[in-house]
Amino acid sequence: MKVFNIVCFLVLVGFACPNSVVPQSSGKELTSATAQPLPELLSREKEVALALSAAPEHLRQGAAVYALERNGFVKVRDGSNGFTCIVNRDHPLNQKPVCFDAEGTATILPKILRVGELLMQGKPMSEIDAEIAEGFRTGKYISPRRPGVAYMFSGDIRNFNPRTGKVESFPPHVMFYAPNLTNADLGITPEALAKDPSLPFVAYQGPHGFIIVVNNDAKQMHMDH
Q1: Whole-model pTM over 0.90
Q2: Can you give the three-state secondary structure of 62-130, one letter per residue?
């Protein structure tokens, strides 16, 4: 997957995709008339390798690892450096390798584990989103309590785009915890980001929001296509 669709990812954070952007698709589609599938289960070896691909190489050996099984995520390796790697499924068609620091492991990971469990039960995304929102409201889940980082350096990030109904790729990037921050706080507009996709932006706005910073190659990729 060499062509990355950066701007269309912003559908998930309240920005619209410009019509001029042509996404790369895996060919998988999910429409309103399609029953929600269960997440794809990978072999243990492939799942672990994909999870670890999110982290910088020097952190991989000491990171804890989770893998998705039929009943949800299970911890398959303990860690020694405070980092935890997992292939996040926040939609049944998504595969998002991510490696959280100790703060993300304590605060964001529990939410990810629960979403994986509910997806494997076949629960619809609307029901899952409502439960997670209620969990943050009641304090079952909490926002990161300090600045921190989540690495997503994998070259194989698969993200479902609700606008196109297809799974698209997304470039390697770094995320910094930014609870309840908005793109307006950063001075970022859809027009500015469409012109320069290397600008930072807020994803998953709310108690578990992140500032996403893509690598410098993203701007060149956009200019070349």
Answers
A1: no
A2: CCEEEEEECCEEEEEECCCCCCEEEEECCCCCCEEEEEECHHHHHHCHHHHHHHHHHHHCCCCHHHHHH
Helix (H, G, I), strand (E, B) or coil at 189: coil
Q: Is 138 exposed, middle or buried (0-12, 13-18, 19+ CB in 10 A)?
A: exposed
Render pLDDT for 15-70 as a digit per residue (tens, 0 to 9).
433 333 333 344 455 544 457 899 999 999 999 999 999 999 999 999 999 999 99
What does DSSP assign to residue 216?
T
Q: Which residues contact 61 (CB under 8 A, 6 or more apart)?
A: none
- The DSSP letter of residue 141 is S
Query: Which residues have CB under 8 Å from 116's CB, separation 6+?
Result: 39, 68, 72, 73, 89
- Residues 106-127: tens digit of each pLDDT: 999 999 999 999 999 999 999 9
Task: Provide the angle, in degrees to the nearest 10, between the axes of the packed helices 125-138 and 109-120.
Answer: 150
Which whole-number Å values give the CA distances from 84 to 40, 151, 160, in the listed order? 21, 10, 23
Task: Give the per-residue pLDDT at 72.
Answer: 97
Write out pLDDT tens, residues 165-199: 899 998 999 999 999 999 999 999 999 998 998 89
Question: Within a 13 Å sphere around the CA of 110, how many CA atoms are in the beta-carbon half?
Answer: 13
Of 9, 35, 30, 13, give the one whose Cα is nearest residue 21. 9
Q: Which residue has the tokens 């469990």?
A: 117
